[in-house]
Amino acid sequence: MILINLLPHREEKRKRRKAAYFTGLALGAVAGILAVGLWYAVLEQMKSAQMERNAFLGAEIKKLEAQIKDIANLRAEIDALKARQKAVEDLQTNRNIPVHLLNELVKQTPEGVHLNAVRQTGRVVALTGVAQSNERVSEFLRNTLYNSPWLEKPELVEIAAAGSGRQRAYNFSMRVSIKPPQAASPAGAASAATAAKAP
User: Fold this and answer.
1) Does residue 160 contact residue 171 with C-beta atoms inside 8 Å?
2) Dihedrals phi, psi of 186, to nearest 5 degrees
3) What global pTM score does this model have?
4) Which of 72-86, 111-125, 163-177 has the highest mean pLDDT?
5) Which distant-in-sequence residues (6+ apart) come within 8 Å of 66 by Cβ?
6) Which is more confidently placed, 22 or 108?
7) Alpha helix (H) residue ranges in the chain
């Protein structure tokens, strides 16, 4: 027996294809929306993580800036302390200079030379005195130039004869420089210190 299908099968197939097509479109749209939503969520999460990182870095930068300021303040305090220490050391070193100066003048002044005035300005000392002869003044200049560990650069400013005959004398004035304490010889410094401590 032969069976004949008289139903409109082509229209049924068309309807099924159309339904499948729209279903596929709907599924594609849903999948696209889900993908976009997922991507947006990922981007938002990355953005919030980056913002948290930026906030953390900003807080750390502020801490570092505060530490840098503290370090700068500490350096300024250290520099100030070093300056004070140097000033104290300079005072400690310079306080013995008058003792060394007077000791050296006593040692280097030859017989026949008398000092009337000693005036110190910084490291330069102006001396005025009376000598029995020009040779005594020359000897005094040589002594301060070659024999003194504390005095240097002697310079005769003026010499003039005073008196007449056997009582003739010579008024003189000269300048001499005090050597810096580091340049003075340890032996001279030790002997000067011993002389200063002696009663």
Assistant:
1) yes
2) -60, -35
3) 0.44
4) 72-86
5) none
6) 22
7) 9-94, 97-108, 134-142, 186-197
Please name the residues in contact with 173: beta carbons below 8 A apart, sequence gap of 6 or more: 126, 127, 128, 129, 157, 158, 159
Name the more confident of 60 and 113. Answer: 60
The token pair at 152 is 């240097």
Question: Is pLDDT above 90 for 60?
Answer: yes
What is the rounded CA–CA span in Å between residue 6 and residue 175?
Answer: 144
HSE-CB of 98 using CA atoms within 13 angstroms: 7
Q: Which of 187, 188, 178, 177 is nearest to 107 (CA)?
A: 188
Residue 29: pLDDT above 90?
yes
Give the residue among 136, 175, 134, 173 at the shortest CA–CA distance from 153: 175
Strand 169-178 versus strand 124-131 pairing type: antiparallel
Q: What is the DSSP-derived secondary structure letter of residue 165?
A: G
* Cα–Cα distance measured from residue 162 to residue 159, given in angstroms and rounded to the nearest whole number: 10
C-alpha span between 151 and 140 (Å, rounded): 12
Closest CA to 173 of 108, 123, 129: 129
Indicate left, alpha or beta for 122 from its phi (over 0: left) and psi (-120 to 50: alpha): left
Distances (CA, A) of 112 to 133, 136, 139, 142: 8, 7, 10, 15
With contact defined as beta carbons under 8 Å apart, do 176 and 153 qualify? yes
